[in-house]
Design brief:
The structure is a homodimer of 342-residue chains. Chain A is of the alpha/beta class and 342 residues long. Chain A contains 10 helices and 16 strands.
């Protein structure tokens, strides 16, 4: 874990002078997600998974567009009131985002952090709002679509391939957040960019194991620099390690002397109901933790049921050709600390 | 051009309180680039285009790693002195960047803006340095590789396909910039995110035409909001419109009442020597304008031959499947204003 002497690297945590407020959040999901654990908490669901589109790829764009518009409706804004859109997805060249938000006309900067993109957006959005006092707000939207992702990264669904026990189910889901310089809502009080970590995993159906070392790397760097411990948080919420990755993370953190205990919850491990859904190791995808954060955890922060959480969306950096050519899937895990207003 | 009422949208230009200094820049290129117009100005070239790697995809990672290390050597820094790396490329899921910079251990945020990524990095890097006073510097590196890009987006080179007259040659090139809160060198005095524009082009071999409307959109928005005109710049440098896209841009700007005159230079149109190289419409790729900016224009700014330039890397947002499914290639063009120190 310390092969690059990371623990000596400080000054990584950014505590903004003006902690941006998440004045609105929105989520939209497909059929499996809505019959999962947080069914009914999402703002919108489409049981056809098509969101009115003609291909799975276009469906993801329509899903993102839906989330963006729900976000604006909640914030009572029109697209021209949004200063900046930070967005990304899993499709090659992030094209789901490009096509999804084209018609909004909002100034756009595309991100790619695989499933860590929601948190990457919070890192950069927090910086953007603090740097630029004329930027009133910044929207962050990330999406994923099960059917588009499966045929791109693995096999077309029509092939009916058997999934392995450690496989995760790419969620058909999107989540959006509107960060503002002022307003009411949970605030982002600290952010930290992650570093890429190669855990030596080359199995695209075992992304939890590929990402867990990067999560441990970021967590340990954060605790080392801040002097805080897991006890300082009500929850440590990871993106989509799934159940396999969550177990590995628990073991890594225990070994490194920072046991997480039952404070750790993983959006991927929780999004589905394994009793009734064949989710293998849990959910994944850019939209997995984004939708669960928007629909489930942010309301708890708003209503005072949670006070302070450490949020880490987790990314598995790979492509269809990188898997074919070498195969190590690199992990990355940026951090955002979210605090309720009550 | 004004279908979304953009010209009424103001507050987009960000003029940083602390204009970051580009304390170092580095470039590395392949065979065709080094025998092009700026041959001899790049820091490094490899006539094999392989950069010691075993596949074209890995060669792009090695190219990026080379640029990053040249950048650090020039700045007399080691990787642990770099606070943040913003990087991206054209490969699916930006995997060339992930693999290329893994071993540096630098905190990493991946960007995807197609060939506009260098300028997108300048926008976000300027914000990051202004937001976070403990962030001493921020590296931006972008790469592209002709052979990796061709087989991903179009056809494998071995197929020997005929290229159309408007096709651009994806450059095997990378460019890097080290932005710092203090130091000597050209400064970034203003940045602006671009908006996506659909020019109705679906031909992946005519990206100049696809991007020119987005460039005009950004330029007009910048001039409208700033009250400046093309006369306020020694050069207006675009990324890789190529010769076709440059002609379209000239016509669009003339029609809109903001003629660019001969201040406009396009890195894609200039990188090769059409007299001796079969480049069709010019160069393209994330590394095209990044390497030309690092090798050719920044030295002119450092030495006082240029005082103030408007730099717009230009991105064509598309993927292999988006071309197959619908085909409109969206354009985007963020802006960075660079000023010499003399």
């Amino acid at each position: 874990m310390d092969r690059w002497g990371i623990h000596g690297m400080t000054g990584r945590i950014y505590r903004p002078a003006l902690p941006p407020t998440i004045v609105a959040a929105a989520s939209a999901v497909g059929y499996e997600e809505n019959r999962g654990r947080f069914g009914g908490e999402y703002d919108f669901h489409d049981d056809s998974d098509l969101f009115g589109a003609d291909t799975w790829e276009h469906a993801e764009s329509a899903l993102g567009y839906t989330v963006f518009n729900l976000l604006l409706a909640k914030a009572k804004l029109s697209p021209k009131d949004v200063g900046l859109l930070l967005a990304g997805d899993l499709q090659n060249q992030c094209v789901a985002s490009a096509e999804g938000y084209l018609s909004t006309g909002v100034p756009f900067l595309g991100l790619y952090g695989a499933c860590s993109t929601a948190c990457e957006g919070m890192v950069l959005g927090t910086m953007a709002i603090n740097a630029n006092s004329s930027l009133q707000n910044c929207a962050i939207v990330t999406t994923s679509h099960h059917c588009a992702a499966e045929r791109q990264f693995r096999l077309p669904l029509e092939y009916g391939g058997q999934r392995t026990p450690t496989a995760q189910w790419t969620a058909t889901a999107g989540g959006g957040f509107l960060l503002a310089a002022k307003g009411e809502g949970p605030r982002i009080t600290a952010v930290m960019a992650g570093r890429m970590v190669d855990g030596g995993i080359s199995d695209a159906s075992n992304m939890g194991a590929a990402m867990a070392p990067a999560v441990a790397d970021s967590l340990l760097a954060y605790f080392r620099e801040s002097g805080e411990s897991p006890d300082d948080f009500d929850r440590i919420i990871t993106g989509d390690l799934g159940r396999e990755g969550s177990e590995i993370l628990a073991e890594l953190c225990h070994t490194m002397g920072v046991p997480l205990g039952n404070r750790h919850e993983d959006c991927g491990a929780k999004i589905y109901l394994p009793e009734i859904q064949d989710d293998h190791c849990g959910g994944s995808g850019c939209g997995c933790c984004a939708s669960v954060m928007a629909a489930h955890y942010l309301p708890a922060l708003r209503e005072g049921r949670l006070k302070r959480v450490l949020f880490m969306a987790t990314g598995a950096l790979m492509s269809p050709s990188s898997i074919q050519q070498r195969g190590h899937i690199l992990g990355i895990a940026p951090i955002a600390v979210l605090e309720g207003e009550k």
